[in-house]
Write a structure and sequence with these properties.
Layout: E1 5-11, H1 17-24, E2 31-38, E3 42-43, E4 46-55, H2 59-71, E5 78-84, E6 86-88, E7 93-101, H3 104-121, E8 124-130, E9 135-138
Helix pairs in contact: 2-3
Length: 141
């Protein structure tokens, strides 16, 4: 297990950006890239009322493995990722990630890879509730 990956969690309570930032703080890092994903009020042309995230019981090992893989031999100094589950309202934070590196190119590259792989591979599913009364599952198996 890498000491670069410093925080990996899934929570049913509001997320704290400062906690994620502080988890990657490092005297050797000249760049920290934060990504904050929030619940928006629309999806395409449909108004969103709220949503709920559900996660598989294996979510943490999968999320940690992805964080370890994307940081690999990149020279980054710290990686953190926290995702929310449960019912969320418009504006609530759904995911917060941070990547600290000596220079910005690696921080940006690893941050993007982490978020893209999280969305594609981590067993977390989104149930969107629309203003018109309809709903949609996103990312479900």
């Amino acid at each position: 297990m890498s000491d670069v990956v410093r925080l990996v969690d899934v929570r049913d309570e509001p997320l704290d950006i400062s906690e994620v930032y502080e988890a990657v703080a490092d005297a050797g890092a000249g760049a920290v890239v934060l990504f904050v994903g929030a619940v928006r009020d629309h999806d395409g042309d449909k108004g969103v009322e709220g949503l709920a995230y559900s996660a598989h019981s294996r979510v943490l090992p999968v999320l940690r493995a992805i964080a370890e893989e994307v940081s690999g031999d990149t020279g980054v100094r710290g990686v953190a990722v926290v995702h929310r589950v449960g019912d969320l309202d418009i504006g609530d934070l759904a995911v917060v990630t941070a990547v600290a590196a000596p220079h910005r190119p690696a921080a940006y590259e690893v941050s993007r890879a982490l978020v893209e792989r999280l969305k594609a591979e981590v067993p977390i599913w989104k149930h969107q509730l629309f203003e018109d009364g309809s709903d949609e599952w996103v990312g479900s198996p």
